[in-house]
Specification:
mainly alpha, 53% helix, membrane, two-stranded antiparallel ribbon, 372 residues, transmembrane, 14 helices
Length: 372
Amino acid sequence: MSHSWLQRKRKGELIELAQRANVPDADTLLKDDLVAALELALEGNESTFAKQRVFSEYYGRSSPIKRERSSPEAFTATATRTRRQTLNKISDSPPELASTPDKPAPVSRALARTPREVTSAVRRVSERVHEVTPKVTPKVAAPHIPTPRVAEVDIPASPAQLAEIADESFQVVKEKATELWDRTHIDEWKEWLRETASSVSAIQTLILITEATALQWNTLADTHYLTNTPVAAGRSFELRIPNLTKLAGSGWWAPATLWSVTNWALPLLFSYFFNLTLRTNTKHKSSRNQYTIDPFTFNIAKAILAYSAYNGAYYMYTTAENTVLAQELGWGPFSQESVATVRDNILGGYYGIQIGSVVGLLVSLYDAALKK
């Protein structure tokens, strides 16, 4: 048989036959795959390769027409799972296997092949046919125009249809609103603000900003800028702005400097050198539990300085007329007027400063407990 004739060939001879039969990638195939590809190529192009001398022995052994002429009776071969073959006469075979003058009885050699040979051969023949077949540009289908939903509504519309249309409209509006909300990135900013504000440094900074804003708002006295009196309403509207001319005198700079020294400059200096967080967790040192500025020491120093500067201490003295008078004390190089300005204009006064220090102490202790 032709299959055994090809199997007896060496691989070099099979490669030469495959090149003559135009089998693609013959050099990369194994021997079994090469035999299967050659069989498919020779069977599909018998009219072309039967005239060549190198394939004459192949077609002389396997041509179904010669077997029909030499055999007195036509048989069909049905391969079973064993190596035996069962021959059936055409009269006993089903109609689809019977031979006609135009269609000889098929003898399938593909049944004798392994699944690997059949799969590889079919794949390579398909690739060969795909290369030879001219490419046809597919027709572009016309775009589908969706039918409006309103056309499906009965007239008059039923309550169920109206409810369905209302629900669809609500879903569309909801999707648009969600898309617009995502474009604003409000959720991302909210999460960033929440993460930033959830720290001891952020709370301490907020306390200092509150004190500074109240001091500057009350120190820079506002001045009249514009008055608008509508005729119809009968009400006057006054526009006042801070008197920025006070920035040129000591009346603003002295209280601002005093507050800066007592409320954050000196406390920062003390808390930097007396930093208790550097001595904690000696077994497992980590920068996560350490601060450059100790918040606990900062608030203790702030409370002590506020007590020494703004507690409203007086000293008593007697005049020449034996009159006892009381006078407020200053603080260091700052006069009593500057001390009184800071104490009277900060939100809550002296007690407001001490409350801010207590809040800072509690927050620092709570943060240290959480990190243990």
